[in-house]
Design goal:
Four copies of one chain form a homotetramer. Chain A contains seven helices and 15 strands. By secondary structure, chain A is an alpha/beta fold. Chain A has two domains: 55 residues, Roll (Vcp-like ATPase, Chain A, domain 2), CATH 3.10.330; 186 residues, Rossmann fold. In chain A, the strands form three sheets. Chain A has an eight-stranded mixed sheet, with helices on both faces. Chain A has a four-stranded antiparallel sheet with strand order 2-1-6-5. A two-stranded antiparallel sheet of chain A has the order 3-4. In chain A, strand 1 and strand 2 form a beta hairpin. The interface between C and D is large, with 75 and 75 residues.
């Protein structure tokens, strides 16, 4: 049985997806008919529910992938294909403390908060107040807001933390903030950057070369989807060709 | 100060990497000179160490990415680009219980064990004893072995667990084991599969269509590396073109 | 000076493109204003022309690329990225005789006719009359129709030619026509196939293995476009992810 | 029957390829045995020939693809995947006159000479004499040398032709020669450039913006090979990830 105030995902056979925090009263209205919240509370995840028009919906617990893809957004978000790789490169896991800037709509924030667990902490900086607000709503929806400290301020003033385990910058001119990084992270801490243009990568690489940084890695991650039809198995016609370049390095103490 | 029996990573300026569990006595011998373990124990992560020939090495704590890439292997391993995406799709995080088969060399096992934390558990099946042994050594090296239960047995006999949160199959004929999945996972649990050939994907899709499964997603993930030289920024000449197709679905209860 | 009845291409600064066979009288009407055909006839290729609203258009001779991209279409066309590679693999050049089926909208037909020159010949089969008609109009527009013989008939009856230099099949079940190929082409002739699904490629490969064919090559060609903005140089956001698989082989005589 | 002094291609069942200009006397010696030239002259293309050890070779007329791939090289060559696209964008076909620089090993030169036919002409510039010599040998081997005029000189001095139909530059700093282009090509002529690094593309785009040039197109072409095994159809493990960026534009007369 699903408890009230749980975030659920309902997917129709036509692959239309709805996310709802289920209350004791109310209903979900779709083009394929209506589902009473009471029906949902009396069901379990992994079951099928019928609308009043007899259409079938799958009742599912959103995965981290679903949470990230469904954040309400006013910005370009970081996609799961990049987020997964970032987690491994930045060594994010239970108990870790990590800084990110800017928060944006909170897609990466959601994944970081999910992975650091109750013992870890995410420090998320965003100078534009409306984005910071939006991200906080997204984290609240996912019930992960208590693992994040939001800072609605410019990182030009530096970071308020010390000795964090990792740091990720998704900002336009990350090279402007390199000196603040040293004060905020543990020596050897993994660092990540997302940049949409080659010009930005070139500028960042130039600054990283001045050290003290570990030789950087620059990658792009491409996701190719296939039509899941066994009789006509083939790639989809269109794909996302570019979200950004990922740059990874680590802060090294001078000798 | 680094404690004895810690796994450390030493990287030369020529990008040659060494992993060692540092003991109180002993040394690392490289083409660029020798480093005493005592030197390492007296240093901190993020520092630079000199060999007796005066060559510089970076002393680093391995990230999850480093752990995965450095597993001793007798099999093809699952790469970080796939592992990251699998974590998000399978909703792996602190406290989760997850089944995987086959264990192989333990690359994915390492990442799963890292992410489920002290409260979670990984159940890893492998019928070939030498691989199971190798994986256990790799997990021990990463100090994650206590989060994994290894089963050196064929999954044709089914899984010993019930109500696990997620399941991943990296086996040659996953369609042979679909009936066992229902008994092992929670309803709605996310499921993942890795398959190298289109023929296998076609066969799996045919079986999944018979249900009761959520409409599957089939993707490929491509990683493109760039030479990190700011004056001549360009993609690398060669790339890994194919590791496998990832298939994701979820177990849905029949009406 | 441009002669009447010439095919010209006019491109606005907003990158809107118009193709017209210019007559002695008449005009081109665009959202950015009107251009009299007389203006065009008094200009030369490579010049700029103004509409009556003062907007600039480039007057250009269409390249083969432009011709192919602008064929009027009722079918999926073969793209320039594939056509170029097909030309090299099939050894198409001045004087060559080549069979293709089906004609479709005539995109590949246009390229083949362009390349074989006045001494060569293209034999193009298409069983659906409306497509054959459309292709003939497209070839006429490009003034290449006299280099092509169109056959509005099913290739299940075989081909009418013998000793042609090369053959290309863009049909749904090419394996049904392999026996007809031997009678139509020179021994050793290069053969090409375009197939959208992996299932079709698998079936074709199975038939080719039965011989007598040269070991096949299977490739996919991906085109990645970049935004040509020097200050923000980056790949475009979306790309065509799949048009089809190209299979190449050669007919080998049995011993 | 094959005439003496013909270039032939012999491919073993193990996919080992040999190119030879067959003389009246002599032989081809391979690891799989010896084939007398007389045997070849008494055979036809598309036939199978046995070595004195009984191993089978396919006797084939090299296609343009084969010619390009087999040029003797001292430089990076332009690959067929790029060459095909260049031909369409530059409108190369029978009768066309085209300039290229640098000649390099002559791979693109071969394709251009093949396509312009007996009526066309290729003007190929290369300042390094050893490359120019090598390219001439490659063109001679393909019996296409009479369609090419080689210029062993620096294009800093400009081009000697006027009113050519198209021009391609594969040089390190193409922006240094833009002013020479105007004098050499017809107005509206298509222009192409190959550049390995993003920095070079950025610099070229900056110069092209100063005009008078048609808005440029920047693309990359990726070729993905598949293992042609019907029971295990899958992409190859490794691929060429980058050869260069292609930039296309057209020379437009100032108003």
């Amino acid at each position: 049985m699903i408890k009230p105030n749980t975030l659920v995902m309902l997917v129709s056979e036509k692959d239309k997806t709805y996310f709802r925090v289920v209350k004791e009263e109310g209903s979900l209205n779709t083009n394929e008919g209506m589902i009473e919240y009471r029906q949902i509370l009396e069901s379990n995840f992994g079951q099928q529910i019928s609308t009043h028009l007899g259409k079938t919906f799958y009742l599912l617990k959103p995965t981290l992938y679903d949470l990230v893809k469904s954040v309400k957004r006013k910005t370009q978000i970081i996609y799961p294909k990049e987020i997964g790789y970032i987690l491994l490169k930045l060594d994010i896991g239970p108990g870790k403390k990590v800084i990110e800037a800017g928060t944006g709509s909170g897609a990466l924030t959601t994944a970081l908060a999910f992975m650091v667990g109750e013992e870890g902490k995410v420090y998320s900086y965003e100078k534009r107040e409306n984005f910071s607000q939006l991200a906080q709503e997204n984290l609240k929806r996912a019930n992960l807001q208590h693992r994040v400290e939001f800072f609605n301020q410019d990182i030009a003033e530096g970071f308020l933390q010390q000795d964090v385990d990792a740091l990720f910058l998704d900002v336009r001119t990350p090279w402007d903030y390199l000196e603040h990084i040293f004060k905020a992270v543990k020596p050897g801490a993994p660092l990540g950057f997302l940049l949409p243009t080659t010009n930005q990568v070139i500028t960042l690489l130039t600054h990283l070369e001045n050290g003290p940084f570990y030789p950087p890695e620059v990658v792009e991650i491409l996701l190719r989807r296939y039509k899941p039809v066994p009789e006509r198995f083939r790639p989809q016609d269109q794909m996302v060709a570019h979200t950004g370049f990922l740059v990874f390095s680590r802060y090294i103490e001078k000798k």
